[in-house]
Write a structure and sequence with these properties.
313 residues; alpha+beta; 8-stranded mixed sheet; 8 helices
């Protein structure tokens, strides 16, 4: 989704007529369970006011920036869109029926809260993650509350805290979030990254531009996700749309790239024999090296946006 599509979709729903629905996300034996969270109208009204304020501050303004998930390697302070698919659908649970309600005894398994914002047939979801340090646990401390006589007495009921934050927004199959660490830690986003990297490796193998993909496969499969994320970043690169001969000829003629590699002229391949060769290859496929005609300077930059310039005739 584009910035405009996201903002328009949300704006059409958050009108005076909507009421938020709250659900608790539990994790029991490595399985997620969704339970309805019964709330009084006074709490729902406060949540609505907070949600409206957060959306206007974070999403519905000119400063909102959305990037494709392939750019997570850049680690910018922007929102990323992750598209759920048949291989990776961590929040499919929100489409299921919710037969049970949250109870005080569920707190030990509480992972966070989903808030459904719907108007007629359109809806989106907001997720707020809960960390153990933010939970109010009466078993680990003595909690007191001020009574009507201006005296404190033990707290005997369950207390749940809602924070003024949005960890992610879900619109249909799109997950919109700044918190990639949370996605990796709690929602198996590592799987999504590795699957995407494997698809890129298959395309590179089919292209046949490398003398061997063995080192690339080994680096991509390492415990750290650095190489896998670099592979993700070339998913939408224009270099992936070139033929083998087009790419080989462009690299051989490039002022920088031609000095980074050794070449097999007969097989028209780039010879890779080290991790350094692979890293340079990924930089090349992401077109990281740029030349400034203004200053005659070469730059190494992974973060860039294509400009549509109308050239004067």
């Amino acid at each position: 989704m584009t910035k405009t599509e996201i903002q328009n979709y949300i704006s059409e729903i958050i009108v005076d007529g909507y009421e938020p629905e709250v659900y608790s996300l539990l994790k029991i034996n490595d399985a997620f369970i969704l339970k309805s969270f019964l709330a009084e109208d006074s709490l729902l009204k406060q949540l609505k006011n907070t949600i409206d304020s957060l959306l206007k501050d974070k999403i519905l303004n000119d400063d909102f920036v959305i990037e494709d998930s392939s750019k997570i390697i850049e680690n910018q302070k922007v929102y990323y869109e992750i598209i759920q698919n048949t291989e990776y659908k961590p929040f499919e649970i929100i489409n299921n029926k919710v037969p049970d309600s949250y109870k005080e005894t569920d707190q030990i398994n509480l992972k966070g809260f989903f808030i459904k914002i719907n108007l007629n047939s359109k809806c989106f979801w907001i997720y707020q993650h809960k960390y153990p340090v933010t939970l109010i646990n009466k078993k680990s401390s003595i909690m007191a509350i001020l009574n009507g006589q201006n005296r404190y007495e033990p707290l005997t009921v369950d207390v749940v805290k809602f924070d003024k934050k949005i960890d992610m927004i879900i619109i249909n199959d799109s997950i919109i979030t700044q918190n990639i660490d949370l996605m990796q830690r709690e929602f198996s986003f590592n799987k999504y990254i590795r699957l995407d990297a494997d698809r890129c490796i298959k395309k590179i193998k089919t292209l046949g531009i490398l003398s061997s993909i063995d080192i690339l496969q080994k680096m991509s499969g390492s415990e750290k996700l650095t190489t896998a994320k670099k592979l993700m970043s070339i998913r939408n690169s224009k270099t992936m749309g070139l033929t083998k001969n087009e790419l080989f000829d462009s690299v051989r003629a490039h002022s920088v790239y031609k000095n980074l590699f050794k070449f097999d002229e007969g097989k028209r391949t780039i010879i890779v024999s080290s991790q350094k060769d692979i890293l340079n290859f990924l930089k090349m496929m992401n077109d990281d090296y740029l030349h400034s005609e203004l200053t005659r300077t070469d730059y190494d930059t992974s973060s860039k946006h294509e400009m549509k310039i109308n050239k004067a005739k």
